[in-house]
Design goal:
Helix 1 crosses helix 6 (285-302), helix 2 (58-74) packs parallel to helix 6 and helix 6 (285-302) crosses helix 11. The protein folds into 2 domains: 29-94 and 239-472, Zn peptidases (Aminopeptidase); 99-233, 3-Layer(bba) Sandwich (Glucose Oxidase, domain 1), CATH 3.50.30. Helix content is 31%, strand content 21%. By secondary structure, it is α/β, with parallel strands linked by helices.
Length: 475
C-alpha cells in the first residue's frame, strides 16, 4: 500500500497499514499454530503404536481415548454431561454364510442367485414346510391345519408397503404373530438395498430363519397348490464393540450443527498379532487421521467465537471402513432423535492438498441445500480450486445424514495413490495445506451461522459425477 501524503489523511493511511500488517501477522500466526496442532494430532493417530485403528480392536479404543482427551482439553463437554462421557459404544458385526439351502418340491436352488438368508436371520431349518402368502388380517387361528413347526410365511414387501428398516421390522412382527417357523421375503424396493437393510446391524436378530427369494421363486409358490418347501440357514457372526467419540458445544440454541469425520482405518490386514513397526500397518494418516485432526482443530478455533446461534456437536465416527456403521448408528440413536440438526459437515481425507499439483478440493453434497451454491460463490478461494459436486455418494459418513433429510457438505482433497496402503503415513501430509483448508471451512461455518437455516433439498447420490471422476480417477 502506498502512503498518500494528503493533508489529513497521512495518519489514516499509516493506521491502515499497521492494521493490515497486524491482521496478516495474526493470520500467519494462527496458521502456524494450526500446523503445529495438526502435526501432533495426525502424528499420534497415525503412529505405528495405533496399529491402523481398526474398528472393534484395542487399538481403535486407544485412538478413541486420545480423541476424547483432546476434546476434554478444548473445553468440550459430553452431551448432557452424560456419565458415559464422550464415548458412544455400539456393536457391529462381520458375518459369513455357511450352508444355506432352499428346496421346493424336491428341487434345490442356488444361494446368492435365487435366494439368500438375510444377515439378521436366525440359524435353523424347516423341513417340508407349508408356505402361506401373507395378507392383512391373517391370523394364527386361520392356519390351524398347518402342523406346528411347518408354517412358513411369505411376504411381498413392496405390495404391502413394507419398505425400509421399519418395513422389515413389520414383516418380522407378522411372522411372530402367526407363530411362523420361517419367513420368505420378496419384491423389496430397490432403495432398501442402498440403505443396507440386509446388513447384520439393520435389524435386531430374528428368532426364525429369514430368506429373501427372487420374484420367480415367489411366483412358483403362488401358482396352484403350494409345494412343500425346505430351508436351512447357517450364518456365522462375530460381534464387536466400537466407539464413536462425541463432544458438545452448548450455546443454548434450539438447533445443532454436526461436524464429523471417521477416525478408524483398516488396521494390519492379514496379521493377527501386529507388532510395533510392522511394515503392513496401514496407518491411515490421510484416511482419516487428517479429517479427525481437522475436527479437533475446528473445536479449538470455534470455542473462542461469541454469539453463535447454533450448538455444535463434534463427532469422531468409527467403523466407517466397515460400512458407515458408526455414523449410521448415531443417526438411528435416541441421541440423534433428541437433536434438531441444521446441517452436517463431513471431513474425510483432507490432508493431501495439491498432491497432484492441481490444488483441487472437492466439495460434495452441494445440491442438498439451495444455500450451498451462493455460499461457496460468496466465499471464493485464492489458493484452492473448489470443485463443486451436487451429489453425496454413499461412501463416507455424510451419507446417513443425507438419508435422514439433513443438508451436508463433504470436503476432501482427493484419492491419492497411497489410499488404503501402508504408505499412507504422516510424512506425506501437507500440513500447511490442511491448515489453510480448515481456515476456509471455519469461515464457511461462521457465515452459515449468521444466516438462515440451510434447509434440506433431496439429492441424488451420484449427481454431477464428472467432477468426481476428474478428481479421484484422473491423475
Amino acid at each position: 500500500m502506498a502512503i498518500i501524503y494528503i493533508k489529513g489523511f497521512r495518519k489514516i493511511s499509516l493506521l491502515a497499514i499497521l492494521l493490515v500488517v497486524f491482521l496478516t501477522s495474526r493470520a500467519q500466526s494462527d496458521l502456524s499454530q494450526s500446523v503445529k496442532n495438526l502435526t501432533l494430532d495426525i502424528g499420534a493417530l497415525a503412529h505405528d503404536s495405533m496399529f491402523g485403528r481398526e474398528a472393534g480392536t484395542p487399538a481403535e479404543l486407544n485412538a478413541a481415548r486420545y480423541i476424547e482427551e483432546q476434546f476434554r482439553e478444548t473445553g468440550l463437554k459430553p452431551y448432557h454431561n452424560s456419565e458415559k462421557g464422550f464415548l458412544q459404544p455400539f456393536e457391529f458385526g462381520d458375518y459369513s454364510y455357511g450352508e444355506c439351502k432352499l428346496t421346493i418340491d424336491g428341487k434345490s436352488f442356488i444361494q446368492s442367485r435365487d435366494f439368500g438368508a438375510i444377515p439378521a436371520s436366525a440359524n435353523g431349518s424347516v423341513f417340508a414346510g407349508n408356505v402361506i402368502e401373507f395378507n392383512p388380517g391373517l391370523s394364527a387361528t386361520e392356519e390351524t391345519d398347518v402342523p406346528f413347526g411347518k408354517l412358513i410365511l411369505m411376504i411381498n414387501l413392496k405390495k404391502l408397503g413394507y419398505t425400509g428398516r421399519e418395513g422389515l421390522g413389520k414383516a418380522l412382527q407378522e411372522a411372530d404373530t402367526i407363530k411362523a417357523s420361517a419367513l420368505l421375503l420378496y419384491n423389496a424396493d430397490q432403495k432398501d438395498f442402498s440403505k443396507r437393510l440386509f446388513s447384520p446391524d439393520s435389524l435386531p436378530a430374528s428368532k426364525i430363519p429369514v430368506f429373501y427369494v427372487s420374484k420367480a421363486i415367489a411366483a412358483s409358490l403362488t401358482k396352484g397348490d403350494m409345494p412343500p418347501v425346505s430351508i436351512k440357514a447357517e450364518i456365522k457372526r462375530k460381534r464387536k464393540t466400537a466407539y464413536n467419540v462425541i463432544g458438545f458445544m452448548d450455546n443454548g440454541a434450539s438447533r445443532t450443527v454436526v461436524i464429523g469425520g471417521h477416525f478408524d482405518h483398516v488396521g494390519v490386514p492379514g496379521n493377527l498379532d501386529p507388532k510395533d513397526g510392522d511394515p503392513n500397518i496401514h496407518n491411515g494418516a490421510d484416511d482419516n487421521a487428517s479429517g479427525t485432526a481437522a475436527v479437533i482443530e475446528l473445536v479449538r478455533q470455534l470455542k473462542t467465537e461469541k454469539g453463535l446461534k447454533y450448538n455444535y456437536m463434534f463427532i469422531a465416527f468409527t467403523a466407517e471402513e466397515k460400512g458407515l456403521f458408526g455414523s449410521a448408528h448415531f443417526c438411528n440413536s435416541d441421541l440423534f432423535k433428541e437433536l434438531s440438526v441444521a446441517w452436517m459437515l463431513n471431513l474425510d481425507m483432507v490432508g493431501r492438498f495439491n498432491w497432484n499439483g492441481k490444488k483441487r478440493v472437492l466439495i460434495q453434497g452441494m445440491a442438498s441445500s439451495k444455500m450451498w451454491k451462493p455460499l461457496i460463490r460468496n466465499n471464493p478461494s485464492r489458493t484452492m480450486k473448489l470443485v463443486k459436486v451436487k451429489g453425496g455418494p454413499a461412501y463416507s459418513d455424510h451419507y446417513p445424514f443425507l438419508k435422514h433429510g439433513i443438508p451436508v457438505l463433504y470436503f476432501t482433497t482427493g484419492l491419492e495413490k497411497e489410499y488404503h496402503k501402508p504408505a499412507d503415513d504422516a510424512n506425506l501430509i501437507n500440513y500447511e495445506g490442511e491448515a489453510m483448508l480448515i481456515d476456509y471451512m471455519k469461515k464457511l461455518i461462521l457465515d452459515i451461522d449468521k444466516g438462515k437455516d440451510p434447509g434440506f433439498r433431496k439429492v441424488n447420490g451420484w449427481q454431477h459425477t464428472k467432477a468426481f471422476i476428474k478428481l479421484f480417477i484422473v491423475r
